[in-house]
Amino acid sequence: MDINTILLNKQIKAKAKTETISKLLLENKISMDELMQAAALSKDSEKATCIEAIEFATKIKPTVATLACVKYVSKTLTENAPRIKWESARVIGNIAHLYSNKLDEAIKNLLINTESTSTVVRWSTAFALGEIIRQKTNLNKELVPAIESICDREEKNSIKKIYAAALKKTAT
Length: 172
Fold this sequence. Notes:
Strand content: under 5%
Largest sheet: none
Shape: globular
Oligomer: single chain
Order of helices and strands: HHHHHHHHHH
């Protein structure tokens, strides 16, 4: 089944679209490049569904992500639609351990998204940044103080807890 056929089929519910596309990706029936191309040519709701399918797949099998995928979701962190931002952040969080030295653009855009008015965007951003600092790379010299500052000004305790847990892991 073709990605666009799935995306445009009004008979298939949103969650089923995500699950179907994710399964096709995991079973190598579609490629990551095909999925990213379909997303790039889609309107925001379908693009978000494609990125959510990538998020589902990378949660199960992080190695399904490619360097092109890292670059793509790093860029989509700057989109206007909150759902695209939060799904992109979750993909980054799922694959941070595989691409810890290729996340400069993602980190820059994630730090911008810490200021989002959307709680879900900030929560997903906290997840991604937390996973990045857990890798204990040289990036932590600058990233840990930035995250500590973000944590101090974050109003939602649920988001603060994500940052605090990640910071605790980097201290050990």
